[in-house]
Amino acid sequence: MYRYDEFDQDFVHARVAEFSDQVQRRLAGEITEDQFRPLRLMNGVYLQLHAYMLRIAVPYGTLNSRQLRMLGHIARKYDKGYGHFTTRQNIQFNWPALSDIPAILADLASVEMHAIQTSGNCIRNVTADHFAGAAADEVADPRPYAEILRQWSSVHPEFSFLPRKFKIAVTGAERDRAAIQTHDIGLHLKKNATGELGFAVYVGGGQGRTPMVAKKIRDFLPEADLLSYCTAILRVYNLYGRRDNKYKARIKILVHETGVEEITRQIEAEWQELKDAELKLPEADIEAINAYFTPPALADRPEGDDLLKQARLDSKSFSEWLDQNVVTHRHPDYAAVTISLKGIGEVPGDATDSQMEAVADIAEKYAFDELRVSHEQNLILPHVARADLKAVYDALAEIGLATANSNLISDIISCPGLDYCALATARSIPVAQEISRRFASLERQREIGELKLKISGCINACGHHHVGHIGILGVEKKGSELYQVTLGGSADENTSVGEIIGRGFSSEEITDAIEQIVDTYLGLRLSPDERFIDAYRRVGPAPFKEALYAGETKAA
Amino acid sequence: MKVLTANRLSDGIAVWYANGGWAETVGNADIAQDKAAEDRLEAIGAAAGANNEVVDVNLIDVTVVDGLVEPVRLREKIRAAGPTIRTDLGKQASPEAARAA
Predict the structure, then answer these.
(1) Does the pLDDT of residue A151 top 80, yes or no?
(2) DSSP A14-55
(3) What values do phi and psi take at A398, rounded to 5?
């Protein structure tokens, strides 16, 4: 994986020193909160309901075991024994004291980590397919390009004060696991007819109060033009993006108000000025970054098939986990493993200090020291020999992380909601927990099949509810929590925004409503192969409305 | 009926103004019954903010139950107790808060 060069390390150390000084000056009363707030946000420090929150960057979700162990250490020493993995493949801690943050950042810097640009109106952590480098279906690893974008966007002087935050995602496969069409810029790494690498470029996707699916503005951008083209997009946005209203300041609004054709013309015109200048990526530079992502040497381990056959017979729960949480690797003797952070009734995305340390040990022993954080708030071991899967499963079961629910209804994305967040209007985690408990039976979950359920505790949509097959949005109405349900959203290569199905539900009603929606789907699907999202797209909202509200109409 | 709340600068912990200082629990916070008392609390909050003791100062609506102050809005109830999903954390976890509740 990527290793800091001297420049990176000096830069991160310098930032730790600078922010430590700013914290000291703030604690000594030498600078005011108004002066300090933008400084702390540039370093990932928020103020939430109960305490400060520190959001730490995990570039394109890639970690090694040393880094994960350090996160466990921070959780134990400075926080309350746990951390929360987020939908930007980052991790946040809910209870750090401001006075401890300089020490936390120094600890992070010692393992090549930081919290820079995890907040503020700048280019945020670039996310990538969590199976990058391992997936059987990718044309190339998208992470070298994410790293190039990270280097380019870090404290970029022109793009540090954008109209609003800016998010970029990259995938290297046709099957989009990085939700690129919900991003300000989505990049799909692909090959053209002559076998050259380049990108399909999407612009103007986003969620929040105005969800928009990104528009494709270029079908093939040669890889050498990545930075010049992104610069052109950011320049047009920086110049014309609205600064009068923060709710209309994202590039999605600019794309919508300007029109795709016109904004594409503006971007292309800007690009003509830039494309053959210093931003053109030299092949040697791409090669140099690529070298950092050289995959581990995967020796043939053909004994896996026989071992798995036997292990399946010995353990039903292992067999179920294998079916649900293990995916095909580009090397036939290997697999990629999803470590579910969605145990039944648990807080989605939370992991304890000792779980982090144990997972780090597993990654070191069985997975070439490599880990990923997925935007779906799980951890991934991208390279595990099939012959080692049983050992990995046993080790995960020991720490309570062997739940076989990847992509099932209890694999819920949830924002922290009103239990922690100062912006939230309703709680999300208890709703996730109750739904998870209601559908606790794995047999029932498997019968239902792939179902992406996503919950946000306010309109900012950090829980991605707009693109859940079933989305839940918590709002406050007359002093109570009310949960609005959307159906038909999706965040893959066929991205769609869910539609509100009808009046909202109280916290007491919401789980029943979800169950009714699921039962309605089971009753109308053509076969077990027809996923919820496919069935919804076929039949539309009517049968679900009928199931949820028909009684009310009759009563009225 | 309102009380003054904020987060402590050094560690961000939620606090309420009580008996001339900042208490870690809401139960005995100073109550403003009228506009004049609210103005007085607001001035105290502004001064404490300017003095770098606390940040994010706000007046919140409360009621009194069994002699103890309770916030009205769910958001403030959760701030005063801790995460509803982790009752081992936040104010609700400490013995004083348990007694107050």
Answers:
(1) yes
(2) HHHHHHHHHHHHHHTTSS-HHHHHHHHHHTTEEE-SSSEEEE
(3) -60, -30
Q: Which residue from A478, A232, A495 is spatially nearest to B73, judged by alpha carbons? A: A478
Q: Mention every residue, 6+ apart, whose C-beta is less than 8 A from residue A405.
A: A324, A325, A340, A342, A344, A411, A442, A445
Residue owning tokens 């809401």: B26
Residue A541 half-sphere exposure toward CB, CA atoms < 13 A: 15
Asked whether the beta carbons of A535 and A521 are under 8 A apart, the reply is: yes
Minimal Cα distance from B92: which residue of A? A50
- Name the amino acid, one letter, at A91: I
Name the CA dihedral angle for A262, A264, A265, A268, rounded to a multiple of 10 degrees. 160
β-strand partners of A82: A352
Q: Which residues of B touch A427 (CB under 8 A)?
A: 78, 84-85
Look up the ipTM and state it. 0.95
Q: Of A115, A421, A77, A47, nearest to B12 (Cα)? A: A47
Alpha helices (H) in B15-71, listed in sequence order: 35-50
Is residue A472 within 8 Å of residue A431, measured between CB atoms? yes
3-class secondary structure, B84: coil
Residues in B touching A418 (Cβ below 8 Å): 74-75, 78
Q: How far apart are CA A54 and CA A259, in angstroms?
A: 38
Domains and CATH numbers, chain A: 6-109 (3.90.480.20), 135-292 (3.30.413.10), 304-398 (3.90.480.20), 413-555 (3.30.413.10)
* Mean pLDDT, residues A130-135 taken together: 97
Dihedral sign (CA A426, A429, A434, A440): positive
Note whether A98 contacts B83, CB cutoff 8 Å: no
Which positions in chain A touch B86 (Cβ < 8 Å)? 347, 419
What is the pairing mode between strands B54-65 and A52-56? unpaired
Domain segments of chain B as ranges: 2-100
Amino acid, single-letter form, for residue B82: G
Q: Are A200 and A516 in contact (CB under 8 A)?
A: no
Question: Residues A235-292: pLDDT tens digits?
Answer: 999 999 999 999 999 999 999 999 999 999 999 999 999 999 999 999 999 999 999 9
B85–A48 CB contact, under 8 Å: no
Q: A207 near A214, Cβ under 8 Å?
A: no
Distance CA(A75)–CA(A204), nearest Å, equals: 36
CA distance B38 to chain A (A): 22
